[in-house]
Amino acid sequence: MPISEFSLIARYFTRPVSPSSGVALGIGDDAALVSVPPDQHLAIAIDTLVAGVHFPVQASPGDIAYKALAVNLSDLAAMGATPCWLTLALTLPAADPHWLEAFAQGLFALSEAHGLSLIGGDTTRGPLCVTVQVAGLVPVGEALTRRGARPGDGIYITGTLGDAALALAQLQARTRWPEQTAGAGFDPDSDAAALRARLHRPLARVQAGRALRGQAHAAIDLSDGLLADLGHILTASGVGASLDVDALPRSAAFRRWEQAQVLPAPETLARTADTADAGPPLPLELLLSGGDDYELCLCLPPQVQTRLATCATGVALTRVGIIEASSGLRLHHADGRVCTLPGHRGYTHF
Ligand code: ADP
Ligand code: MG
User: Fold this and answer.
1) pLDDT band at 236 (very low <50, low <70, confident <90, very high)
2) Who's near 83: CB < 8 A, 6+ residues apart?
3) pLDDT grade for 344, boundaries at 50, 70 and 90
4) Distance from Cα 30 to the centre of ligand 2, integer Å
5) Residues with CB under 6 A from ligand 1
6) For ligand 1, atom 27: residue with the closest CA
7) What is the pTM of this model?
């Protein structure tokens, strides 16, 4: 029995909203109505995931839904906003109940964890495509933007970098997991699972963004790789920066993979853009240019840095560099040696 559009919406996407959610009118009318307190700005972000571009066609529906929401939460986190509401535009080749059930589970698992209400959307038939829009609140004057970085600010990263890009490289057969060896070797089961979880179910750093709003001079979330995304802060703020590549935070699984790599001679690290896609990815390329991290990159003035221990960010923050007055991005090692830029500069669609 084919299911109608309206019973599909009722069955899979309509859940009660709590009285404290600010929702005056939810799913079922021509538009939703929400209350925005007078001292708050409404922060709105939207992202589309296209099958075959942002996720493999066979990806699990729960993971697709989870990621579609998580990438939007990450954008709100980067503004220091508190996410409150979401809308969902779903284009499906067919109304498959098993697929929809799993999709709804992935979506509500994350939305309920953040206290979000699904307040509307659109349902159409066509090639699989998922658009989520999230709206939230941020006190007027406290939003974090890309614009305020100043020379002397420390550059900080939440969590760890490169895990999702490493998992994707393995799924696309651009690298293979190392054989397990004695001692602290890479575990092809647990380490691979941890890396893949970062790819499919990214953790949006909502708490960290909120804790640092009104304090960080600038912020961005890392979706296209640190070099590309930090570059947006530098351009918007009219400054430059230098980064210590040895300080880039790596997960335990990433470190174990990195230790198992036989690195080419340093002179071959200076790949050009033409040759960057040839050969397996280097650890530094994943850390600097791999996408899908969904960590925050924050520029913190010295007075905030001294108070960091008492900010309830809920995640480790690592200092990786400093904002400088002269434009451009300079990479160096911990001992001061200059590090040559790998060819990639992050993912762009066109
Ligand atoms: P309209 O024709 O007025 O645009 P629709 O028939 O598209 O309205 O949708 C009916 C109601 O169901 C609306 O309130 C809409 O926001 C909601 N809706 C449609 N699709 C979804 C979905 N995938 N998830 C949540 N709500 C949805
Ligand atoms: Mg209408």
Assistant:
1) very high
2) 72, 73, 76, 114, 116, 134, 135, 136, 206
3) very low
4) 4
5) 9, 13, 27-30, 88, 90, 118, 120-123
6) 121
7) 0.91
